[in-house]
Design brief:
Elements: E1 9-13, H1 17-29, E2 35-39, H2 42-52, E3 58-62, H3 71-81, E4 88-94, H4 99-106, E5 111-116, H5 121-132
Parallel strand pairs: 1-2, 1-3, 3-4, 4-5
Length: 145
């Protein structure tokens, strides 16, 4: 079984260099062998994703609280301007367990899951298994979605 599924690229969007470092390790430990791109600002990630128009199946992990453009603003801008050429999975990955943030994420159709940091290999494996259509208990969609 291919544990990578159809996802060929993962994009980490977080202003924390440390979080990005550890999340990249979690992705590799999960068996993900594809491309990993890291953006430390919402604006740069948005610019790349809009220009790329999701040329390959892509999973994005998007932090909420970042200077400049926050994660919700990025998700809304992607919802308005993105015409993906391949599958996009957009997941919020944040330290916030605040119910208002969860509700806001739930109101943006493009967002698939609301995940609380840290990203673990088990979480990644669960998301990649869902991409393949395999039931995996490690990641459950947030009830507000």
């Amino acid at each position: 079984m291919n544990t990578q599924g159809n996802v060929q690229r993962v994009v980490l969007v977080d202003d924390s260099e440390n979080d990005n470092f550890f999340h990249e390790i979690a992705l590799r430990k999960s068996g993900f062998a594809g491309e990993i791109l890291i953006f430390e600002s919402g604006e740069r990630a948005l610019q790349f994703l809009l220009q790329d128009q999701i040329a390959v199946p892509t999973m994005v992990f998007l932090d909420i609280n970042m200077p400049g453009m926050n994660g919700f603003a990025v998700a809304r801008a992607l919802s308005a301007g993105l015409r993906p050429r391949a599958e996009l999975q957009l997941h919020i990955l944040t330290s916030s367990a605040w119910s208002v943030d969860k509700a806001t994420a739930g109101s943006i159709d493009l967002i698939r899951h609301y995940l609380v940091k840290p990203l673990t290999p088990a979480m990644v494996t669960g998301l990649l298994a869902r991409d393949e259509g395999i039931s995996e208990p490690h990641v459950q969609p947030n009830p507000c979605f």
